[in-house]
């Protein structure tokens, strides 16, 4: 194991103000559980899980309450013991509704774990993959792609490089940072397991150079690993944590347009996902808790919390001393790609990395002006698109032209809108344009 | 513009929820600041007459901008400073002693015809100040090319004219250096020789010309500020000036009797003003770095073609060169799009 100190980066990107000091020193803290958990059945990309319980059922901690519904889906477990008080739908951070199980907690410590692997080194890949699927593990960096699917590349695709994403490039968020500092050893074992399952020759742990303590902790933990293992220190630049940009930064490989990381022999897993894999294999513990950063200038005590999924946002904000005055904007996730939420009765999920509460001073709300062709968006775009031109096509309802100049390649990282002096809502335009394209394609496919 | 937010509601909007704080009006204000050294140099060399022209142009541009927006029933755009920038740049492109009414006509043309008719800032295909200058050059040819003795830089020192014959001395005080050279080449007379002292005057701005274009030093100071503020990048100015330099060096090498030195080309006429402040106008120049290089080189070549043409009427070509390249900007943008990430060598579109 060694450290690649040279500063890796990609073309484009921005350097926003990070505000990470608010919580980067705050150790992960367990919270008093709420009275109710509202556990969503879709905490992942793909079909919602099928509910396995009914109203009035007693459920134990770690008991499976939702099973995968199809290939790209994931299991859901009860984070804590209690009684199912209702099956319902809940609002989620992105504004949609989702089926959910409401559990009235009873404080019972009894749990229904999976059998831990005593000798995981000698376990088969299949057994471990099955466990990862059973444990409901999904990509915890944000997209929530079911991990067992990612770890099972189709025949003909060989994975030679496993990249563990510890970049955490979103401003404000420090959940992954604290996980690396406080759980380096567990993450190390998770990485070993992931490497075994994938049979990857090379392992790179990517961390931005603004987290020296995390780099140090992980270097120490990874010392024990043999083979081609290294901590890749990335230049601090947004979006260094975006999958395609990170693969380029670390390996110099470009994922082809419309392609997946496995097309260039890579799999990228978040550090928290590596922790969840460790927990599932070594402790038989399904994915039910995660680190959540609750922060922003409108939060009394910005903190990193260890949170059961299904906890309402207001409970977490209360656990951090509440808000200072009125929080004008509350964001699920970070300020660059997070969702502004309409209320606090939204439950956390396996992908909830942070809750950001901003006061009026920090809320930027502008009227859109005409593009002055300054070209700053072109420099900022990590996908090397022409955001100014794309947005003008979409404004003119010429979606076809926008599609021709690669609208669908946009990853919605927000770098363009961040630097636009004309305050154009570029990402909003692109989302709308993409929606039109996808609907058109679906209709065309339906006709055939 | 920050709309009022009801105090007890949550703001909902699409990501990103952060912004770097930049703004169009701040960019235009930076350009105004960057033009200040050249304004001071203009007053220093041409006296209060420079201030008169600047005042007339800026005031007329502002009034025209206000009136156009009113007529079009659009929100006022006075606060974005772009009309002030156009007024300043147009004034800088006018000869000292120009009648005020002509400056007024030019300013109205710049804002109403070259800018607001297209929809205002951001929509104009050509640089408004240069469109107005071209309009004035055609409409008021005499006045726009008259360099009267009374307005000749007050600090002109003897060395400037000592080297010349009485006839050329007389001509020198009523023409720009580039004008003189053009005449000399066309008539087959020898070129006036340039001493290092004269080149220094070129650099400082102690020569005849439009009020804001003469002092390379003041313009470079302003451009350094714009580079520092990241309002402009080096690409267009360097491509433009370097192209002029190389073109001039080649001419000087092969036709020494008909050519002045590359440095004399670089520091004379409107090249500095054009390359640093007019060609770099964001709205009318390309958005990609490669496009900017192409644009700058195109400006340089056309400028030199006009300057050194024996059949052409104009001694200076900066204004027309930039306008012609403005017309190519959409084409250049299209041809120089970045390769989309992951396209493996193929361009989108």
Please explain how this structure is put together.
The complex is a heterodimer of chains A (448) and B (349). Chain A is α/β, with parallel strands linked by helices and 448 residues long. Helix content of chain A is 27%, strand content 20%. Chain A has helices at 125-134, 147-150, 175-182, 184-198, 212-222, 243-251, 271-282, 313-319, 376-380, 387-395, 399-404, 415-419, 426-447; strands at 2-8, 29-30, 36-40, 50-51, 58-59, 64-67, 76-77, 82-91, 97-105, 161-165, 202-208, 228-234, 266-270, 289-295, 303-308, 329-332, 339-340, 354-358. In chain A, strand 6 (64-67) and strand 7 form a beta hairpin. In chain A, helix 4 (184-198) crosses helix 5 (212-222). Chain A is globular. The mean pLDDT of chain A is 94. Chain B has helices at 24-46, 48-71, 82-92, 100-113, 128-139, 141-144, 159-162, 166-172, 177-187, 196-204, 216-228, 235-254, 262-267, 271-278, 289-308, 318-335. Chain B contains 16 helices and no strands. In chain B, helix 11 packs parallel to helix 14 (271-278). Residues 157-168 of chain B have low confidence and may be disordered. In chain B, 58% of the residues lie in helices and 0% in strands. Chain B starts with 23 loop residues before the first helix and ends in a 14-residue tail after the last helix. Chain B has 2 domains: 24-144, no CATH class; 157-335, no CATH class. Chain B is mostly helical and 349 residues long. The chains are: A alpha/beta (448), B mainly alpha (349). At the A-B interface, strand 16, strand 17, helix 9, helix 12 and helix 13 of A face helix 1 of B.
């Amino acid at each position: 194991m060694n450290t690649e100190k040279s500063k890796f980066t990609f073309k484009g990107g921005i350097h926003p103000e990070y505000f990470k000091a608010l919580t980067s020193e705050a150790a992960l803290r367990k919270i008093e559980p709420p009275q109710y958990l509202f556990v969503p059945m879709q905490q992942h990309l793909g079909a919602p899980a099928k509910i396995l319980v009914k109203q009035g059922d007693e459920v134990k901690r770690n008991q499976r309450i939702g099973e995968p519904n199809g290939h790209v889906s994931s299991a859901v477990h009860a984070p804590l013991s209690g009684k199912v008080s209702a099956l319902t739908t809940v609002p989620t951070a992105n504004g949609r509704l989702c089926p959910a199980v409401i559990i009235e907690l009873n404080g019972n410590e009894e749990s229904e774990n999976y059998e831990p692997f005593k000798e995981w080194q000698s376990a088969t890949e299949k057994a471990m993959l099955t466990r990862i699927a059973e444990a409901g593990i999904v990509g915890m960096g944000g997209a929530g792609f079911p991990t067992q699917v990612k770890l099972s590349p189709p025949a003909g695709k060989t994975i030679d490089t496993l990249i563990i994403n510890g970049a955490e490039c979103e401003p404000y968020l420090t959940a992954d940072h604290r996980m690396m500092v406080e759980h380096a050893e567990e993450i190390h074992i998770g990485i070993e397991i992931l490497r075994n399952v994938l049979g990857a020759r090379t392992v790179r742990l990517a961390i931005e150079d603004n987290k020296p303590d995390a780099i140090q902790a992980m270097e120490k933990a990874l010392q024990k690993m043999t083979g081609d293992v290294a901590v890749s220190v990335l230049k601090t630049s947004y979006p260094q944590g975006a999958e395609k940009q990170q693969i380029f930064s670390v390996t110099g490989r470009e994922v082809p347009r419309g392609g997946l990381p496995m097309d260039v022999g890579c799999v990228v897993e978040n550090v928290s996902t590596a922790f969840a894999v460790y927990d599932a294999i070594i402790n038989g513990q399904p994915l039910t808790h995660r680190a959540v950063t609750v922060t922003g200038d409108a939060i009394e005590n910005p903190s990193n919390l260890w949170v059961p999924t299904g906890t309402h946002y207001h409970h977490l904000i209360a656990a951090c001393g509440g808000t200072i005055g009125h929080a004008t904007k509350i964001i699920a996730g970070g300020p660059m790609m997070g969702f502004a939420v309409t209320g606090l009765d939204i439950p956390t999920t396996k992908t909830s990395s942070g809750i950001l509460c901003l006061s009026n001073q920090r809320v930027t709300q502008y009227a859109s002006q005409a593009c002055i062709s300054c070209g700053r968006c072109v420099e900022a775009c990590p996908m090397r698109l022409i955001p100014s031109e794309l947005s003008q096509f979409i404004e003119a309802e010429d979606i076809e032209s926008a599609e021709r100049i690669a609208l669908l390649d946009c990853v919605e990282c927000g770098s363009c809108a961040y630097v636009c002096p004309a305050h154009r809502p570029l990402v909003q335009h692109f989302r709308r344009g993409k929606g039109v394209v996808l609907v058109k394609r679906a209709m065309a496919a339906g006709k055939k | 513009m920050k709309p009022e937010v009801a105090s007890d509601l949550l703001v909902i909007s699409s990501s990103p929820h952060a912004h770097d704080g930049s703004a169009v009006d701040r960019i235009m204000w930076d350009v105004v600041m960057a033009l200040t050294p050249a304004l001071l140099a203009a007053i220093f060399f041409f006296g209060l007459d420079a201030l008169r022209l600047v005042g007339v142009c800026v005031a007329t541009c502002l009034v025209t901008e206000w009136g156009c927006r009113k007529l079009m029933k659009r929100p006022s755009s006075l606060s974005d400073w772009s009309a002030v920038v156009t007024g300043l740049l147009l004034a800088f492109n006018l000869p000292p002693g120009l009648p005020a009414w002509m400056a007024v006509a030019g300013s109205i043309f710049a804002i109403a015809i070259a800018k607001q008719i297209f929809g205002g800032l951001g929509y104009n295909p050509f640089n408004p100040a240069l469109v107005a200058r071209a309009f004035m050059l055609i409409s008021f040819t005499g006045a726009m090319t008259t360099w009267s003795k009374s307005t000749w830089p007050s600090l002109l020192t003897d060395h400037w004219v000592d080297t010349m014959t009485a006839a050329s001395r007389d001509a020198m005080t009523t023409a720009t250096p580039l004008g003189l050279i053009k005449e000399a080449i066309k008539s087959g007379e020898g070129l006036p020789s340039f001493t290092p002292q004269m080149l220094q005057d070129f650099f400082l701005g102690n020569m005849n010309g439009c009020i804001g274009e003469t002092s390379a030093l003041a313009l470079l100071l302003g451009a350094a500020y714009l580079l520092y503020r990241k309002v402009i990048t080096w690409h267009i100015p360097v491509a433009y000036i370097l192209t002029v330099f190389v073109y001039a060096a080649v001419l000087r090498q092969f036709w020494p009797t008909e050519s002045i030195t590359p440095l004399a080309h670089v520091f004379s006429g409107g090249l500095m003003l054009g390359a640093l402040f007019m060609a770099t106008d964001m709205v009318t120049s390309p958005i990609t770095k490669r496009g900017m290089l192409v644009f700058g080189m195109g400006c340089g070549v056309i400028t030199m073609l006009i300057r050194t043409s024996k059949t052409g009427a104009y001694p200076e070509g900066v204004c027309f060169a930039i306008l012609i390249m403005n017309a190519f900007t959409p084409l250049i943008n299209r041809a120089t799009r970045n390769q989309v990430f992951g396209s493996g060598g193929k361009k989108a579109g």
